Amino acid sequence: MNRATFPHRVLPWLLIAPQLLISLVFFYWPAVQALWQSTLREDAFGLKTTFVGLANFRKVLADPAYLNAIQVTVVFSILTAFFSMAVALFLAVQAEKVVRGKGFYRTVLIWPYAVAPAIAGMLWLFMFNPSFGSLAWPLKQMGIDWDPLLNGKQAMGLVIAAASWKQISYNFLFFVAGLQAIPKSLIEAAAIDGAGSRRRFWTIVFPLLAPTSFFLLVVNGVYALFDTFGIIHAVTGGGPGKATETLVYKVYNDGFVNLQLGSSAAQSVILMAIVIGLTAFQFRFIERRVHYG
Amino acid sequence: MAEHDMVGASRSGRIAAHLFLILGAVVVAFPIYYVAVASTHSLQTILRPPLPLIPGPEAYQNYHEALAGGIGRIGGVSVDRLLLNTTIVALGIAVGKIIISMASAYAIVFFRFPLRMAMFWLIFITLMLPVEVRILPTYKVMVQLHLIDTYAGLILPLIASATATLLFRQFFMTIPNELLEAARVDGAGPWRFFRDILLPLSATNIAALFVILFIYGWTQYLWPLLVTNSNEMNTIVIALRKMISFADADTPWHLVMVTAVLAILPPVLIVVLMQRWFVKGLVETEK
Amino acid sequence: MATLSLKDVRKSYGKTEVIHGVSIDVEDGEFVVIVGPSGCGKSTLLRMVAGLEAISSGVIEIGGTVVNDLEPRARDIAMVFQNYALYPHMTVADNMGYGLKIAGLPKAERAEKVRRAAEMLDLLPYLDRKPRALSGGQRQRVAMGRALVRDPAAFLFDEPLSNLDAKLRVQMRLQIKELQRTVGITSLYVTHDQVEAMTLADRLIVMNAGVAEQIDTPMAIYDRPANTFVAGFIGSPAMNILPARINAAGNGVILDGGPEIGLPDRLPASVGPGKTVLLGIRPEHFTLSRDGMAGSFPVVVHAVETLGADAYAHGRLTAVAPDSLVVRVPGHLDLHPGRPIHVVPNRDMLHLFEPETGKRL
Fold it and tell me: Where are the bilayer-spanning segments (chain B) (predicted)?
C-alpha cells in the first residue's frame, strides 16, 4: 500500500529547506574542503599552497606518532567497550533477578549518562589527583608510585575508567531491554530440561543477547572513538608523552595547535572512512536483524 | 507468581543480586557523590586527603561565595552567565533539532516531490560526518560566516541531525494512511493535520527526544571549545576545564567543586525526572 | 444531498491502467453498492470520488459540479473508513466535530450537531471517551457519526463492516440501511461481501478487474446476470456453470454429461442448433424428484454440507464427469455419498452464456 500524502509541491521544499541548508553549509561543504585540503600542502608561512596528491596520506600513515595514535585508540576503545559492557551486563542480569527496587537502581545507574565526558574525566581526576585525591591517597599509602600525569599506563587507566564509567548507564538500559525481550517460555523450557541458573545464562540468555551486545559493541566503538575527546582533552591532554593521544585528539592537536593543515585534513579523511565503514557495518547488521526478527 | 519463582532467582539469589546492585550503584554514583561532598568542605579539608565521606559544614558558605562572584574571580565569567550560556545552547540545540527534524521528516513522509529520496539520502549521509572528522574546515566556515563567539555559532552546526530526522520519519510511517485521509476528508490541510493530529500523537516521542538532545547539548565539548574565544561565551563545561588547567597551589578547589556540581546537576535532574520518556526514547530510537 | 456521476473514469499507475473507464449515475438519495473481489479496483474508484486519488481521465461530478481537481475538503463528502480512522488522541465528541471545527462552525452549534448525531447512533454516553476505550462496534458508530454530522452531499463507505465480527456486522448493516433511509443522503458503498451488497443496495455495481461488469438492482442482477463473472460472484453458493450444446430442435440444451433440458423461451437467431454454450443453474433452482420423472436427471453425490434448514449436495452428472455440481436440498434429507439423487431444474431460471466471451445470450 502506498503512503497517503498531500498533493502540495512547493511546501515540502520549504519544510526540508532548513535542514538541507544546515547540512550543506556545515556538513557537506566542510567535508569537501577536508577532502580538498588533504591533497594540498601549505608552506610554513601559509603563503603558498601546492597540490601534492596523496602525499599527505603517505606521510601521515608513515608517521610513527600517527601509528602510535592508532594503537592508543584501539587499546582505549577495546578496553572501554569491554569494561563498560561487562559491568553493565552484570548489573542488568542482577536487576532482572530482583523483584523490588528495580526503579531505584535504575535511577542511580543512569546518572553518569547526564554527565559530560569532559566532566566525567575531571571527576575521576579529582578522585585520583596525586596531590589531594582521596582515592589516590590509599594507593600512595600502599607504596604505589601513583601519578597519572607522569605515568602513561596510569594515565591510560584513568581515562579508560572515566570513559567506561560514563557509558555504563547506556549499556545497562540496553541490556535490561534486551533481557526483557527474551521470552520467558524459553528460560522455562531450559529449566524443565534441567539447566541450572548459571547454565541457563550462558546457553540461553547470553546467546539471545547477541544482537544487543553486537549493537552495543558498535555504539561503544563509536563512542570511544569520538565522544571521549572531552575526557582526553580535559584529563591528560594526550599525555604524558603521547600515551593517551587518540586519533580524534591528534586531528584536533595537529590542526589547531600545531597548524599542520594538510596532515590534519588527511587525518580527517581517514576518520571519515572509519565512520563510513562503521555505519555501513552497523546498518548491514541491523538489516539482517530485521530479517531474523 | 509460581512460575516466576521457578525460573526466577531463589531467595538467596535475590539477596545476592541486591547486594551486587547496591555495590554497583555505590560505585557508579560515587564520583558524583564525591564532588558533591567536596563542595561542602573547606579548601583546607579538600587539600588534606582523605576527604570525609559525609557532607561538611561549609556548604552554605561555599555556595554563597561561589555564586556571589567567587567563580567569576577564577574563570573571569560569572557563574550565572555560564549557566545561562549552557542553558541557551542546550535548549537551542534540543528545540532547534526537534523543529527542523520534524519539518524535514514531515516533508519526506507526507509529500511526494521530485528528488525526495535524494534529499533523504543527503540527510542520512550526514550521520557519517560527525563534527570530529571535519573540525578544521567547519571552523573555517564559522570564521567566514562571523559565527565565532555567537550563540548561533554554538547552536546551528549541531542542530542538523540525521538521527532525529530518522526517528521522526520512522514514527510518522507508523501513522495509518487512513488517519491522514480522514483528516483530509474532514477538511484539514497540511498545517492543520500537523498541528491537530501529528503533533499530539508525537508528544511522547518529542519528550523523549528532548531529554536526549538537551543532554547532548549540555555536554558538548569539542564544538564550544573551538568556536568560543571569549570567556563570556563559554559553557560551564569549558569554563570548568579552564579552571582546572590553570590550577596551581592557590586554586580555590572548594569553588571548583561547587562549579562542578552546578555543571552536573541540571542534566542529571532532567534525566532522573523525565526518566520514563528518556529510557523509552533512548532504547527505542537507537534500535 | 446531491447526485453523483462518473463518466468514463480511468486510472493508470505509470503505463498500467487499473480502472478501465467506469461510468455511473447515482441519483439523489440513492444507495449504490460497489461489490467485487479484492483487487478489482472498487476501493480505488471510491477514493477517486473522495479525491484521495487523482483520476487519469474522465469526469467526476458531485451535485452537478465537476470535482476532478478539487481537494477532498472541497467536495462536500464524508467518508467511513475500513479501520474507522478515528483520531486516537481526541474524544468521541471531538472526533465527530473535527470536520465542523475546521469548517469554522461556532462551538455551540457544533456541540448541538454532534449531540444529535450521537443520539441517533446511541453514542451519547460515550462522548467524552477516547476511541481506545470503545468496542469495535462503538468505534464503527463513531466513524459513522463523524460522517453524519457533516451533513454532506454524499457518503462514501469503504468496507466499513469488514473489521467486525459476524453478528455485529448484521446489526450494523441494518443500522446503516435505516440511517441512510432516514437522512436520505446519496451513498456509495464499497464491499467485497455479496450478502452485504445485496441487502444494502438500491442499485449494485459488480466490478471485476477495473471494469463495471453490471449495474442494476440487486434482484435484476441475481435474475439476469450479464456474464459468467457476475453469475458466479452474486449468489451463494455460486451458480453452477456447465458446458452444453443446443439440441437439434433448438428448444433445449444437452449437457456434456448426457441429460437434455428443455428451454422455455424462443432462442435468439444467433443461438442455432448445435451451438456450444455455457448453461448456468443456481443450486437453489433444482427440485428433487423421483427416478424417471419427466425432465429429471440423476446426480451422483460425492459430498454433503449440512447447514440446518438446507443442505448442499455436491455431485456429478456421471461418475466420471469432470465438472462438479451443487444442488440445494432440504436439510433433513438423508443423503449418502456415492448414491444418486434425481433432480429437475427450474426451467424459468436457466441462464445461457457465450463460451468465449462469457456474455449472457
Answer: 15-36, 88-111, 118-136, 148-168, 197-218, 253-274
Q: Which CATH superfamily is domain B79-285 in?
A: MetI-like (1.10.3720.10)
In a domain, residue C359? The reply is: no
Q: What confidence score (pLDDT) does residue B287 get? A: 43
Q: Which pLDDT score is estimated for B5? A: 44
Q: Which residues constitute the domain of residue C196?
A: 4-233
Q: Where are the domains of chain A?
A: 54-292
> Min CA distance, B231 vs chain A (Å)?
17
Are B259 and A156 in contact by the 8 Å Cβ rule? The answer is no
Q: Which of A156, A170, A166, A79 is nearest to A119 (CA)?
A: A166
Q: Are strands C260-262 and C252-255 parallel, antiparallel or unpaired?
A: antiparallel
Whether the Cβ atoms of residue C142 and residue C92 lie closer than 8 Å to each other = yes
Residue C289 lies in a domain: yes
Q: What is the CATH number of the domain that holds C260?
A: 2.40.50.140
| Cα B232 to Cα C182: distance, rounded to the nearest angstrom | 74
Interface of A with B in 252-281 (CB under 8 A): 252, 255-256, 261, 264-265, 268, 271-272, 275-276, 279
Give domain limits for chain B.
2-75, 79-285
CATH number, residue C139: 3.40.50.300
Here the cell at position B262 is 552546578
Is the backbone of residue A194 left (phi > 0), alpha (psi -120 to 50) or beta?
Answer: left
| Cα Dmax for chain B | 75
What integer is the mean pLDDT of A149-166?
90
Query: Rounded CA gap, A251 and C112, in Å?
Result: 69
Same domain assignment for residues C19 and C138: yes
Using left for φ > 0, alpha for ψ between -120 and 50, and beta otherwise, residue C242 falls in beta
Helices (H), chain C: 42-50, 92-102, 107-120, 136-149, 166-183, 194-200, 218-223, 228-233
Give the chain A residue nearest B3 (alpha carbons).
A188
The pTM of this model reads 0.83
For residue B200, what is the nearest residue in chain C, using CA coordinates?
C89
Q: Classify the complex by whether its ipTM is higher than 0.95, answering yes or no.
A: no
Phi, psi dihedrals of residue A163, rounded to the nearest 5°: -65, -40
C-alpha cell at A124: 575521576
Q: B207 to chain C, minimum CA–CA distance in Å? A: 16
- List the pLDDT tens digit at each of the 361 positions of chain C: 589 999 999 999 888 899 999 999 999 999 999 999 988 999 999 999 999 988 999 999 998 899 998 888 889 899 999 888 999 999 999 999 999 999 899 999 999 999 999 998 889 999 999 999 999 889 999 999 999 998 899 999 999 998 888 888 898 899 898 888 888 899 999 999 989 999 999 999 999 999 999 999 999 999 999 999 999 999 888 899 888 888 887 788 888 767 788 877 767 777 778 888 888 999 999 888 877 777 788 888 888 888 888 999 998 877 666 678 899 988 888 888 888 888 888 888 889 898 888 888 8
- The minimum CA-CA distance between B150 and chain C, rounded to whole Å, is 41
Q: What is the pLDDT of residue B7?
A: 55
Query: Which residue of chain C is at minimal alpha-carbon distance from A2?
Result: C53
Do C67 and C147 have their domain in common? yes
Stretch among B23-27, B265-269, C273-277 having the lowest mean pLDDT: C273-277
Last residue of a domain, one of C233, C252, C283: C233
Looking at 1.10.287.1080, 1.20.1440.230, 1.10.3720.10, 1.10.10.10, the CATH number of the domain A54-292 comes to: 1.10.3720.10
Pair A162, A133: CB distance under 8 Å = no
C36 contacts C207 by C-beta, under 8 angstroms: yes
Segment B197-208 shows an average pLDDT of 91
CA C339 – CA C335 distance, rounded (Å): 8
A34/B119 touch (CB, cutoff 8 Å), yes or no: no
Strands C154-158 and C77-80, bridge-based pairing: parallel
The values of phi and psi at residue A99, to 5°, are -95, -45
